[in-house]
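$ run holo --ligand "glutamic acid" --emit tokens
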Amino acid sequence: MAWRELTWIERFAPSPTGPLHLGHALSALTGFERAKQAGGVFLVRIEDIDQSRCRPKWEAQIFDDLAWLGITWQKPVLRQSTRLTAYHIALQNLWDQGLLYPCSCTRTEIKTVSSEPTTYGPDGLVYPGTCREKPLPEKMPDTALRLKMPAKLQSTIGDIVIARQNMGTSYHLSVVVDDAFQNVTHVTRGEDLRDATPIHTYLQEILGLPTPVYHHHRLILDDNGKRLAKRDDARAISKYRADGASPADIRQMVGL
Ligand code: GLU
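-- output --
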């Protein structure tokens, strides 16, 4: 059979910090079905860089819920906890380009230093740039590091933390490095991550990585019109399963 380039590689990338809820079901089912229709590949990636919050029982539950929903994915599954060297290399690349600086500001310091009213971006408080002009150490330090964002993203996002203290990476860096590593062409995720997309496309630009096609789906809201959170166990797929729901019921609940 002649080799041909896959034009659709899709991933679902949950963090095993809690049960999958209806919003995850919508992301995973949409991504899986888009990839299938396109004759592509569907991947599940375990985003477990924050080891203090990740639990093996949640990971097992994720696989169980996805299989129950009728989703299949390519194995072996990539775990971000095995990819720390790749993140370090990308981080060093950014440091060598002069795009990073260490920051030791606390949240309270960020709030009090800002003369402007505090604004929130996709990553929390927009950083006022306190540590930006401080002299840099010669070597990349093992502390929290911020990324200098371009002017057009300064007021809405600000300089984000790209390496968290004691972690050597962040959600943004890991996700961009891994999407490129896994040749991901299409990403389906919730509307809540739309504001993070400019961070990801900027990182792809400065790291010389391709940008996948992003599709942000509507959020599943609770009865009060609020978006579902991981801790909202009442909306966990496992809870509905325990109450006797079928995969078809879940599809109906998320509007598929
Ligand atoms: N790991 C993230 C989460 O569980 C999703 C990452 C992404 O889709 O970019 O919310």
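-- notes --
The chain is about 35% helix and 15% strand.
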